[in-house]
Recover the amino acids of this structure.
């Protein structure tokens, strides 16, 4: 499998997640954030905490 194909599959997953009607992804202001960046930030935060411990 090429990296390009994997990137397309990953992007499609995040697009489906973003557009899921069952999930309310708005913050307290009612703004919908891009899930790719939200999950990236969470991952980096968890990795940073793990590095400190």
């Amino acid at each position: 499998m090429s990296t390009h194909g994997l990137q397309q599959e990953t992007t499609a997953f995040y697009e489906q997640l973003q557009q899921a009607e069952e999930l309310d992804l708005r913050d307290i202001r009612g703004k919908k954030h891009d899930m790719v960046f939200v999950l990236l930030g969470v991952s980096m935060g968890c990795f940073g905490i793990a590095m400190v411990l």
